Amino acid sequence: MHRRRLLSGAAALTASAALVPPLTGTAQAAPRAPSPQLPSRAAIISVLRRVADQWIGAHTNSGDNGWANATFFSGLLALQGLTGSTSYLGYARSWAEKHAYGLSGGVTTRHADNHCAGQAYLDLYEREPDEHKLTAIETSLHRMVYTDQPAKNDDWWWDDALHMAMAPFARIGTLRNDPQYWEKLYALHNHTKRIEGGPGLYVASTGLWYRDKRFLPGGILSPAGKPVVWSRGNGWVAGGHTKTLKALPSTERHTAEYRDALTRLVVAVAKVQRTDGFWNVNLADAAHLPGPETSGTSFFVYGTAYAIGAGLVERTTYLPVAARAWNGLVATAVHPDGILGYVQNVGDRPESSQPITYNSTANFGVGAFLLAGTELAKLAG
Predict the structure, then answer these.
(1) pLDDT value at position 9?
(2) 167: which residues sit within 8 A by CB, 6+ positions away?
(3) Which secondary-structure segment (H or E) carries 279?
(4) Three-state SS across 137-194?
């Protein structure tokens, strides 16, 4: 059971102030700290293939087009782009065709989760251009930009939404040379960041994000009375900003703000990395359900690796952070047969889908791992 503590008046102000320095301490020390040295590109790709091949082999039915499975295909297609694998492309293509390149909820959906599949459809379009692949995702986003309550910007009320839907708006805007998609993206992002729940979900003093308004000061706290700053929630933010920055021109007027948000997040999480290379499920309380967790850790590797490659952070300082995380993931979470363990399954907070074990796995966790390794391989020799 999660613990709620409702505060008001001076107590609420005290809780808010406590958010400024919550990033203290690390979890229990691992028996053996992972190396800060980055493996070779070939070694990284070998592990990625083992994990991807295991998942595909165990899932001859490629699954639905919801956000969790779409995140897997986003990672698989990133790996496909790195390796040129025709089998990965074929598996992704057959999945998309099974769903007729459609969206869960149809083209009238405004829900960010339903837009996540559009990322894979855009990847497939880039490899094999055919306009019908984009009909559903483009129609849905076009409605939000131009015809379906275009002034409504409160759809992204939780930080996961930034990963699910930022990139499709950025990429359609770039593909069609239509800045209105970028303006809509910023309006939705700005609501999440500065308006949702009153102050917004972004904590400027730390560079981290609350999952949703329930966790704002005066809301849900950890059993020890500390803030709940969910690891994977911040991982979704890192992933969303990374994918968006990959898509936007450097001259787009909001790009600098997205760069700053990712940079601050990468810097913040580096300060609370565990000695085993992972991050805790609650970044603000190392004692709150301590233990390795793969999905948040993978997204932090993804964001950190991109930030290094893009020159947002110093390579000498942050490459060891990403390398320790990757080496910890490979040593601790990757089974000999390629199963990826220690993935916190579907949820919205540290208590969700507990306990997290060596055998806990999920499609979106595999996708996050593939994104992380693919981005990290670009930095390797």
Answers:
(1) 31
(2) 119, 122, 240, 243, 244, 246, 247
(3) none
(4) HHHHHHHHHHHCCCCCCCCCCCCHHHHHHHHHHHHHHHHHCCHHHHHHHHHHHHHHHH
- Which pLDDT score, from 0 to 100, does residue 381 have? 76
End-to-end CA distance of the chain: 47
Give residue 328's pLDDT.
98
Distances (CA, A) of 256 to 178, 210, 301: 19, 22, 21
| Bridging pattern class, strands 202-203 and 208-209 | antiparallel
Closest CA to 239 of 192, 286, 169, 305: 305
Query: What is residue 215's DSSP assignment?
Result: G
Count Cβ atoms below 10 Å from residue 40 Cβ, excluding itself. Answer: 11
What secondary structure letter does DSSP report for 4?
B
User: In the chain, which residues have pLDDT < 70?
Assistant: 1-31
Q: Tokens standing for 150?
A: 């275009």
Cβ–Cβ under 8 Å, residues 112 and 155 = yes
Q: Distances from the Cα of 144 to the Cαs of 140, 168, 240, in angstroms?
A: 7, 12, 19
d(CA 158, CA 186): 15
pTM greater than 0.85: yes
Q: Could you give the dihedral angle defined by the CA atoms of residues 135, 136, 137 and 138, in that order, rounded to the nearest 10 degrees?
A: 40
Q: Which amino acid would we find at residue 129?
A: P
Contact in structure between 168 and 141 (CB atoms under 8 Å): yes
Distance CA 170, CA 185 (A): 7
Identity (one letter) of the amino acid at 170? A
Helices 255-270 and 231-247, axial angle in degrees (round to 10): 140
Alpha-carbon distance values, 80 to 87, 180, 346, 370 (Å): 9, 31, 26, 10
